[in-house]
Amino acid sequence: MSEQKANSYLIVLQSSAITLTGTASLAARGLADLRGKGTAESMFRRAMMYMGKRHQDKRVELLQRTIALDLEHDAARTQLGIAYSARSGTDQDETLAARFFLEAAERGYARAQFYLAECFLNGSGVPQNINNAVEWYRKSAENGFAAAQYQLGCLLDELDRPADQDADIEQFGDFKANTREAAKWYEKAEGQGEEWCAYRLGRIYRYVSPRSAKKAEFWDRRGDVLRHGDAFRTHAKRNVGNVCSRKQGNEEWNSVEDSLVIEAKLTAEAEQGDPESQIAIGHLYERGECISTAAEWYARAAKQGNVDAQVRLAWLHFDGKGVSRDRAQAFELFHRAANQGDFRAQLQLAWMYENGVGVDCNPRIARDLNRKVEDITDVDKLCELASMYSRGSGVEMSKRKAAKLYRKAAELGDSSAQYWLGCSHEIGEGVAKNSKMAASWYRKAAEQGYEHAQFNLGVLYEDGRGVPQDYGQAAVWYRKAAEQGNADAQFKLGVLCDLGRGVPQDDVRAADWYRKAADQGDATSQFNLGVVYRQGRGVPQDDAQAAVWFRKAADQDDVDAQYALAVMHLNGEGVPKDSDEAVSWCRRAADQDHPDAQFLLAELYEEGECIPQDIDEAAQLYSKAAEKGHEDAKHALQRLHLDNDASL
């Protein structure tokens, strides 16, 4: 455990000699055999506890063990397919994923049928086949799977089909649209909470025969529920917020909270011909998978000469999304944008000339266009282009080119470029790893007020990398970033105040900085705030408040907080005494290799008062904790071995 969380030991060490009480049955909650050999279902539940990429291998292992216990456990087969399809690099195996989906789908498991349909639709692990995709979507939909009902509706919806007949045949083969059937599936999916179906139903009844203004109005009103809900608010902010914020000098677009007002204003301005609003609405439709409608809005803005719209519409024509696949039309749009100096269009045109796509091959023009891009001096364009190369977005990924472009912008004084160049030097991405250079570029950005650079410079001072170790300077830069709301800096500053490093030791200030970061959702700060409430340092001692903050951190998988909650539930401190909760949190921490949690859970298994006694499981847990240097676990393991020898 890091020194910054060392204070947690004041809890865990003092709690190591716990009197085990409480006899509430864990078996009723199905937890007794969660870590043991158990049944296939208990093994599957355990596998589902391991979420996220860092637990991927463990999740796969447990799913495989589930199937070994029950060859027809279709949920496990489906989750295993998802795991293999979601892996990255050489670990990804889409063919194996499709096989797992097929085995479960053939037994009628709706979720597997849906994922198998996705495989056929996208050609992932199986040959692409629209008819097979529809067949499996339909089976899943008939089994009541809402996502399949929605997707089947989309495939049947003629409003999502390309207007060009050849393009329609290219994408959908002989599979014909049937908008009446699409409406049926939309209604079924909407009834299960697929809210976007309401908009699609309103659109169908407004534009497709037989039209019904009354039904269109009904579904539009149903859609208003989404407009006022969190889902639409999040969706609207994500999709149009960036476009709105580009409207210089108009603070209202940056601060408005009501998503319904956002959409209404955008629509009104778009209808009046404002190209930025037309792009924003188009982007909203594009993210909502109404690509053909998005293309209409982009086209209206593109006709006014808007470069961004020209590029967006060009890509839709290039890929054949929502419009006919027309590389020549894409070339024309890219050309119009390139003539206005858009470097994204110039890069794509260079590629098209170089490869003869949409235009006759012409390496000379390709070189000239690439040279224009290389001659860019506008820092915003340089940073955007660097980001494109760094992410491989629209260009072939090249960390070296990204770093070169960031340096060019950094030397022109751009603080964000200076920060990213510092990051590149710190980790050795695209440039030689050099902490001194990283510190130098961070400082340039930090002195311009760039909060992330201020934080990173503070870290270098705290660690003594690239600069002499200096806690005082670390505190100076952490404070600058913390005062701008940087949660990581607030946490770090809290730690320095807690330990008295670089600043006077001050429990009150430490608690204050922990709280600022904790209120922003920082899990480690939430844990530390729980610790200070538990100990009454800088705040009044309050076990109930400690438990509140431990719970917030534990829900984010903070292992120390999970262990602390287990102790508090076991003793009834700040929370009701609850052996079920205690064992549950202790198990979650132990599964993340927390040695104190493993030791405590082993004690529970050995005593058999909160959970069924299992000496073998206790020995395994003592062994795991002992391997991490837990002295009490070593003694307990020796005692068990001695008791075992004596019994023989």
Description:
The protein has 36 helices and no strands. By secondary structure, the chain is mostly helical. Among the domains are: 1-32 and 557-648, Serine Threonine Protein Phosphatase 5, Tetratricopeptide repeat (Alpha Horseshoe), CATH 1.25.40; 34-230, Serine Threonine Protein Phosphatase 5, Tetratricopeptide repeat; 491-550, Tetratricopeptide repeat domain (Serine Threonine Protein Phosphatase 5, Tetratricopeptide repeat, Alpha Horseshoe), CATH 1.25.40.10. Helix 7 (130-142) crosses helix 8 (146-156), helix 30 runs antiparallel to helix 31 and helix 31 (543-554) crosses helix 32.
Provide a brief overview of the structure.
This protein is mainly alpha-helical and 648 residues long.
The outline comes out as globular
CATH topology category name of the domain at 34-230: Serine Threonine Protein Phosphatase 5, Tetratricopeptide repeat
Count up the helices. 36
Q: How big a fraction of the residues is strand? A: under 5%
CATH hierarchy class name of the domain at 34-230? Mainly Alpha
Largest sheet features? none
CATH H-level superfamily of the domain at 34-230: Tetratricopeptide repeat domain
What structural class is derived from the secondary structure elements?
mainly alpha
User: Based on DSSP secondary structure assignment, what is the total number of beta strands?
Assistant: 0
Q: Please estimate the helix content.
A: 55-70%
CA radius of gyration is 30 Å
Average pLDDT over all residues: 80
Report the end-to-end length measured between terminal Cα atoms.
40 Å
Unreliable runs, pLDDT <50, ≥5 residues?
6-38, 225-259
CATH architecture of the domain at 34-230: Alpha Horseshoe
